[in-house]
Amino acid sequence: MLGWFSRVITPRISLLVPFLNEEALLPETFRHLRGMLDGAPTAVANDSEVILVDAGSHDASPILANTAASESGWTVVEARLDSPSVGRTLACGLEAARGQTVIFLPADCWLSADALVRLHTHLGAHPGACGGFAKRYDPQPAILGGYAWLQNRFRLRGLRQLVWTNGIFGPRDALRHSGIPQAGFLEDLQLSDTLRGRAGWVALRSEIGVSARRYYPNKIVRRILLNLVILGVYRARLARIDTLRRWYRAV
Prior knowledge:
The protein is an alpha/beta fold. It has eleven helices and eight strands. The strands form two sheets. It has a five-stranded mixed sheet with strand order 3-2-1-4-7, with helices on both faces. The protein has a three-stranded mixed sheet with strand order 5-8-6. Helix 2 runs parallel beside helix 4 and helix 10 packs antiparallel against helix 11. It starts with a helix and ends with a helix. The model is unreliable at 1-7 (pLDDT under 50).
């Protein structure tokens, strides 16, 4: 039913889900997406479209994505990028989006039905809104819980700084006009800087679930410290983007 409706009306929300070689993760991703849509009121689910954006996978991810899309009425965009990044992948998906508002939802993040409803309701009153969600890690031991609290309290709500795992959203046409940054790394911070000054910026109270896979095994403290160093060095412009990318991938 969702797929049929999404083809005959212009949806309010387009959910863009980028992925690259994620065959082990995608079944869980699709389970969360279906749970979100099935748990939302029919009007909200029918007012949302899902676009799966393949950056150029070489594993079974494309097969899984096309199967899920066929079963659920979703759309698959094959970006086939020579030098993939999240920003470049989402820029390809943005061209296919029909929703008035686009939300960028990494494959290892998920929204609840309640979060989707809250976003839909907020957009009904503020159609040009942009922003993101507070995050919660899964699993979330005490140290990651504290790290999430600091990010939500100071970086998100205090400094209005967004990253991909905040579920960044904004008006489709405005995003097409400004363009999605395609520097290859930290593109979310660059996009955040563009959105921060827009009227209608909001940090929605519903949480976005974020897989803690990048912090395991035995890398929680190192990853947190590296994230903070990279952010500080980037803001101080003390190193090139490709250098920061190498630091990030080294852990």
